[in-house]
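Re-running the complex after MR caught last week's input typo. The corrected sequence lines follow. Everything else is unchanged.
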Amino acid sequence: MSDFNFFLMIGGMMLVTYLPRLLPAWLLQGRTIHPFLSAWLKYVPVAVLSALLLPSLLVADGKLNLAWDNLYLWAAIPAALVALKTRSMFATVLVGMAVVALTRLLFA
Amino acid sequence: MEKSTIIGRVFTPALPVVLGYLPIGFAYGVLAANAGLTLMQTMAMSVFVFAGSSQLIAVGMISQGINPISIVLTTLIVNLRHLLMSAALSPHMKEWKKIEIAGFCFELTDETFAVHSLRFRKGETSPRIAIPINVICQIAWLIGSLLGVLAGGGITDVKPFALDYALPAMFIALLLLQIQNRKQVWVALLGAALSLGLWAAGITQWNVILATVAAATLGAVLETRVKEAPLTEVKS
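Corrected-run output:
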């Protein structure tokens, strides 16, 4: 790809990434929101994070992995326990990665 | 918690995202170098786009020789979910200047969104803390990208260090920290099941958005119809 085409592509990617991030906050600011919409928005974080999480555990290399030895799924258990116990994102990420790294080291 | 200092209020919430972004940014940098992107091109994407999953997708598409227009359209579809996140944060930014919203939203990613949706709910809505948190997160992304490019072809496998598990582990923490009542549990179950189900049915680009809209609607219906006590207290 030529530098010019690449530059155009980056510009396009920036635009289509930034506008969805900006416009709702920009346009809804200071408006009174209907109670149903306001309740709906309150559930977006949980809804979107759960929708991101499960595929990230069960999809590998573009394929569904429901095998019993899916390490991502098993490692989610200690990670989740740490998250619930410590309420710390840092500890959760650290433990999750450590479990995966150790398992690979021991059983690879 | 060292809430007394500005440094603590900025770095403490940013730290887990930094921890996640360094390895993922690194993976992006390695893949970009392997796809033939120059250092400048790779870094330009991390500076101007700053969207983890779509940058990884874009690099994959570039290495397959797919045309730039398709790459931009794919980026649009993948990042449309941020419409929902931006809208969800908007009630907390009533006092913000437009320019502050513009700066903040440029760095609104899945991860920074999750951090701020927790903080904002606790009343910590100052842009003077929120924006620096985002800046630190993007700096971590840039450092990760840079190190990945420099490591380049030397590293083809990130698995021995479990770098590939940083993102799933972060989603686990981000999700569980949000959940405080039974309605949210139902919303999470529906969102997760629907997203995976749609993906398995071949709807691999729109599954997250469709599942989010459906699950948040369930939450709103439950919220406006049913009242119940919270499951646990919010810890700060």
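None of the earlier attempt is carried over here. The radius of gyration of chain B is 19 Å. Chain B has a mean pLDDT of 88.
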